[in-house]
Amino acid sequence: MKLLTSPASPFVRKVRVLIREAGREEAVEEIPVSTSALATDPQILSHNPLGRIPTLIRDDGPAMVDSRVICRFLDAQFKLGLYPEEHLWDVLTLEALADGMLDSAVSMAYEVRLRPEDKRFPDWIEAQWAKIARGLDSIEADWSSHLARLIDMGQLALACALGYLDFRHAARNWREGRPSLAAWDARMAQRPSLQATRPR
Predict the structure, then answer these.
(1) Alpha helices in the chain (DSSP H)
(2) What pLDDT does residue 182 have?
(3) Average pLDDT of the chain to the nearest whole number
(4) Same domain for 101 and 186?
(5) How far apart are alpha carbons 135 and 113 in whole angstroms?
(6) Most-buried pick from 96, 130, 136, 151 (CB within 10 A)?
């Protein structure tokens, strides 16, 4: 299998973390591509009409798109167990929360990095951050028991989301007022899979 990647993409990072959690780096060739929301690498378009990463190229079927689909597929392929049946809906919900915060965080980054300064929309940026802040507050308040369980894909997705906030939005200081989540993140950040895939 081949994975189209970018070192800065938090959605790609989720897949790369899963592969390393499984210890199956040899099973997936990672192919870096240079792409952005305004200029899609042709190599992606030849496999994914949406022009997005991650894209997983298989020998026995169409390329797979969307990090959640790819993670679920690879978890089943590698028999890793990151979507345990007994907590499946919690895992999927936490993964969706993490991905939703990432959608807003990436949107904020695009607004600053891709738009000319005179066309930026500060209210849009703040509205996106408000969504992230509410998500973080909800996890701080309601998800501590889940975060204490064995590692699952929801937790790994959350760790990738928090890493992206540090990477692109460090000045927002998401840890302030969220001591439990900050302590959990500090522990998670020591996992070799997360260490090896830090965004750059």
Answers:
(1) 10-22, 42-45, 67-78, 88-113, 122-142, 144-147, 153-169, 179-188, 192-195
(2) 98
(3) 95
(4) yes
(5) 24
(6) 136
